[in-house]
Amino acid sequence: MDARCVVKTVGVTKVFGDFVAVNSVDFEVNDREAVGIIGPNGAGKTTFLNLLSGLYMPEEGSVFFKGRDVTRVPPQKRIEMGMMRTFQLVHVFDNISVYDNLALSYYRKLEGRAFPPGSVFTRLFRKDIEKIVGDVLELFELDKRSTQIVSNLPLGSKKRMELAMAHIADPEVILLDEPFAGLGDIEIDEILGILTHYIHKKTIIIVEHKITKLTQIVDKLAVMCDGAIIACGGCEETLNDPEVRKSYWKVSEDEQVCL
To answer: Which CATH number fits domain 5-249: 2.40.480.10, 3.40.50.300, 3.10.100.10, 3.90.1150.10?
Structure first.
């Protein structure tokens, strides 16, 4: 395996009943590379992220992280190894504050456990934790919302908070599932501004439908269709690949796809 390769799958397949959601996928992402995954609804994109993050186990094939076979390694262990996953539907603790969510994420990184023993939140206000969380709140422009209960936040702020929770855990690999879903253009541009800070500093894999936004930040694109990756490479080259034009864009060979 190439020493630069951080995430790799070999022949990964996931089946639900008679439905093949991911079909023998070979995939590689190098260190500090940003890769976008696009495709129609039902193409297998989110299922593939679930295989990478350990939420699903494949029926066939293998998943590698930094050269180690992690195919049967559970999600929590992959987080500890440096792989963090976000979701299309924001996964946060709605009934506690913004500060508490970030502090819990940081505590898990420090102590290797999701919750402090004994009194759940007392340890989240240690001086070292308060300083780190405060800096991250400011970086993500959430400092004025730190005491708000998360369920009261607008969606754009929740998405920023989920990214802040990933940031504070300092993973090597960030897997993002439709970070722009449900957001307006202004909110998307805010998230793009945040993601720009990670480009070539972290390894990033992003599933997204908003291609014009996605191509602003990724090094290459992979296109999934019917559970398989039908093309992967530079953005313009991939979008104009004959198989992508036929299966994804539904355009003729003579038509050009412009970014």
So the answer is: 3.40.50.300
